[in-house]
Amino acid sequence: MDQFTLARIERDPNYLKLVSERKSLGWTLTIITLVMYYGYVAIVAFAPSIIAAPLFGTITVGIVLGIAIILASILLTGIYVMRANAEYDDLTSAIIGANRRGGK
């Protein structure tokens, strides 16, 4: 790809929107995930009695929270994929189409 084409793509409003939205969503989901995981570790480190509290027989709060974190991570991944398929693919197609037409 030549420099002219690259510069044209980088000025494309769809490209700017794509980069901005992906970055924003990516950081938001990353922060949510880090808060969940580090929050769990913090509870284990600073309040182990909460994690060890039994809920149903031998099932403890820690087990339920651990499963919840894994399921939440899968859900967050699904949110990203759905948004990528719904919006980001359309923006990418628009960028490619504009590039094929010479930036128009």
List the SSEs and their pairings:
Layout: H1 3-11, H2 13-46, H3 48-52, E1 54-56, E2 59-60, H4 61-100
Antiparallel strand pairs: 1-2
Model description:
With 104 residues, the protein is mainly alpha-helical. Helices cover 85% and strands 5% of the residues. A hairpin with a 2-residue loop joins β1 (54-56) and β2 (59-60). α2 (13-46) packs antiparallel against α4. It is elongated. The mean pLDDT is 90.
Q: What does this entry show, briefly?
A:
Helices cover 85% and strands 5% of the residues. The protein is built from 4 helices and 2 strands. Helix 2 (13-46) packs antiparallel against helix 4.
Number of domains: 1
- Return the structural class: mainly alpha
Count of separate DSSP helical elements: 4
Report strand %: under 5%
Shape: elongated
Low-pLDDT windows of residues? none
Total beta strand runs: 2
Order of strands in the sheet with the most strands?
Answer: 1-2
SSE run = HHHEEH
Helix content: over 70%
* First-last Cα distance: 18 Å
The biggest sheet, with number of strands, parallel, antiparallel or mixed sense and barrel status, is: 2 strands, antiparallel
